[in-house]
Specification:
Blueprint: E1 2-6, E2 12-16, H1 24-29, E3 36-42, H2 46-59, E4 63-69, H3 78-90, E5 98-103, H4 105-117, E6 124-128, H5 131-137, E7 142-147, E8 150-157, E9 162-165, H6 175-192, H7 194-202, H8 207-224, H9 239-248, H10 255-269, H11 274-286, H12 297-305, E10 314-319, E11 327-332, H13 334-344
Parallel strand pairs: 2-9, 3-4, 3-5, 5-6, 6-9
Antiparallel strand pairs: 1-2, 7-8, 10-11
The structure holds glycine.
Length: 346
């Protein structure tokens, strides 16, 4: 089993192994001295894994309560947040009791924010079951729910006690959801890791190898900048334009697809990097991800200006001058329009 330690203010481990879900009770017992657990999952994941996890935890002596939210981004809401924390209160959860988040990014983000705020913080364990959650959202302690005014506006940095990744759970993903996670995987190759990028081009690594590498990269970045004031911004490669695409499409285009297009636009906008941009497009397309969209530079620029990452009149964006060397640059906001014009014109 691979164990990766995350060196944040409270350190914890990420365990990665095929079949790990079968040892969930043993793994949780090692870090949780709880009497009660809330197993939070969604309507897609519950029929696949909830019973097995529930029964294993109960057999280990925990009192396990289940909470199943409707699958989808709409559940990352204050309504579901209040429903979960009210359940914790009604069931008499104490500060040593815990939440187990079994699912993708929505479940993990909601569970983490509930854990961060109920009784001013109770333990939680992440068991991500999508590729996106394995390589990104379950690692690093960003938790949040959405407000009507925007995504992730109500949240906290709050680290889990443990992350358990069983790559076999990816086998039940529909291709579009798997592809969504691949966009973030390809991002890690672009910003930090030519060897990973190469392996993706050649399809020479297993899911487990890919996840190990991505989690290792993310753990290094998060340890260096837990609270997102510096180098963690690197993880947002393709995201400024990606978020604008998501907005313009009224979230019809998925996060992964939008990030894929955002990375492609950025790569094409970088004058000297036509070769890298072509390699990026080829690898994105080979994983069934888009590299272009119907929106024009003006539309995307307007949407990006409304995004919360705008800092006064300057904007932080990520460029990749050469493969593996993601770089944060600060530009006047108007310059984003130039990137968009250039990147979209190919
Ligand atoms: N998903 C980007 C981050 O965790 O900072």
């Amino acid at each position: 089993m691979e164990k990766i330690e995350i060196g944040t203010s409270r350190t914890y481990e990420i365990h990665i192994e095929e079949g790990l879900l079968g040892r969930v009770a043993e793994e949780c017992s090692a870090v949780l001295k709880s009497e009660k657990l809330l197993l939070l999952t969604d309507s897609n994941v519950a029929p696949l894994y909830a019973d097995a996890v529930h029964n294993a935890l109960e057999a280990a002596g925990y009192v396990v309560h289940d909470c199943v939210i409707p699958a989808g981004e709409e559940s990352k809401s204050t309504e579901q947040y209040l429903r979960v924390v009210s359940t914790l209160a009604k069931k008499g959860f104490s500060r040593s009791d815990a939440i187990i988040a079994l699912g993708g990014g929505v479940v993990g983000d909601l569970a983490g924010f509930c854990a961060s705020s109920y009784l001013r913080g109770i333990p939680f364990v992440q068991i991500p079951t999508t590729l996106l959650a394995c390589v990104d959202s379950s690692v690093g302690g960003k938790t949040a729910v959405n407000l009507p005014e925007g995504k992730n506006l109500l949240g906290a940095f709050y680290q889990p006690r443990l992350v358990l990744i069983d790559p076999l759970t990816l086998k039940t993903l529909i291709p579009a959801v798997y592809a969504d996670g691949m966009a973030e995987v390809i991002k890690y190759g672009m910003i930090r890791d030519p060897e990973l990028f190469d392996a993706l081009e050649k399809r020479s690594w297993t899911d487990t190898q890919i996840i190990n590498r991505c989690v290792t990269i993310k753990s290094e970045v998060v340890a260096a900048d837990e609270f997102d004031n510096g180098c963690r911004l690197l993880l947002n490669y393709g995201h400024t334009i990606g978020h604008a695409i998501e907005h313009c499409s009224r979230f019809e285009i998925s996060h992964g697809s939008a990030v894929a297009i955002g990375m492609s636009v950025m790569a094409h906008a970088e004058e000297d990097e036509a070769t890298l941009a072509k390699r990026l497009d080829a690898v994105l397309q080979s994983y069934h991800l888009p590299t272009s969209c119907a929106f024009c530079a003006e539309e995307l620029y307007r949407a990006a200006m409304a995004d919360k990452k705008r800092r006064n009149q300057m904007l932080h964006i990520i460029t990749v001058p050469t493969l593996g060397n993601g770089t944060i640059i600060t530009i006047p906001v108007e310059e984003l329009y130039t990137y968009l014009r250039k990147g979209l014109s190919v």
